[in-house]
Design goal:
Keywords: Repeat. It holds the Pfam family SMP. This is SMP domain-containing protein. Belongs to the LEA type SMP family. The chain folds into three domains: about 40 residues, no CATH class; about 30 residues, no CATH class; about 120 residues, no CATH class. The protein is built from ten helices and four strands; from the N terminus they run αααββββααααααα. The protein has a four-stranded antiparallel sheet with strand order 3-2-1-4. Helix 1 packs across helix 4, helix 5 runs antiparallel to helix 6 and helix 9 packs antiparallel against helix 10. The longest helix has 16 residues. The protein is globular and about 45 Å long.
Length: about 220
């Protein structure tokens, strides 16, 4: 839900469904009711969605889990002559945008090997090339992961996901809408390079997965 909120609105909404769910998940984990990487079948099968709707004078955000609405709010917006009703989530989200959403979700996370592998896989899917581009976002992530693994924990030389991915769309020489296959490739790359063989709950693969789901929902 955090990834979906970040992609649709550019931030995690204070007091919104994602924030409430994060608090509940942390409490459930502390009490031993769920594991850290555990996902309920309902969510994994039906996914989450965040849709923004703009109509003259009003801006609406609706958040859903499967077919259940779990949150929503409205705010007034300036009227613009001839402004048609539109759904911002109806346009296809790109790989670059999904990477930028990961920067919002996990901006302070230090880049590691699994992050770098996921970013490299995403770059390859965006460009259609089977290589890491010199000076590209994938190469930057790989360099950051290598440095982070060598330098002391308190070193200022360590690099975060936010620093690598904040302008991912501009760093990619080509971009494309996220598909289910893109999400699967990125997830596999992240898992293969994680000793625990899992993806990070709100990391790169999760963000690409959220974008793929939103794109699929836009086709329905």
């Amino acid at each position: 839900m955090q990834s979906a909120e970040n992609i649709a609105t550019g931030k995690t909404l204070k007091g919104g469904p994602a924030a409430v769910m994060q608090s509940a998940a942390a409490r459930n984990e502390r009490t031993g009711h769920v594991g850290h990487g555990q996902v309920s079948g309902f969510v994994s099968e039906q996914g989450v969605g965040v849709v923004e709707t703009n109509v003259p004078g009003r801006h609406t955000v609706t958040e859903t889990i499967g077919d259940q609405t779990v949150g929503g709010y409205e705010m007034p917006t300036p009227l613009a002559s001839g402004c048609p009703a539109e759904v911002l989530g109806s346009g296809k989200l790109t790989i670059g945008e999904a990477l930028e959403a990961a920067a919002l979700s996990e901006g302070e996370k230090l880049v590691d090997r699994s992050d770098a592998a996921a970013i490299q896989a995403a770059e390859m899917r965006a460009t259609g090339l089977n290589e890491t581009l010199p000076g590209g976002v994938g190469a930057q992530a790989q360099s950051a992961a290598s440095i982070n693994a060598r330098v002391p924990p308190a070193s200022s030389e360590r690099t975060t996901l936010g620093e690598v991915l904040s302008d991912a769309s501009m760093k990619l020489p080509a971009d494309k809408p996220v598909t289910r296959e893109d999400a699967e490739r990125v997830a596999r790359a992240e898992m293969r390079n994680n000793p625990a063989m899992t993806t990070h709950p709100t990391g790169v693969a999760a963000s690409v997965e959220a974008a793929a789901r939103l794109n699929e929902n836009a086709d329905v």
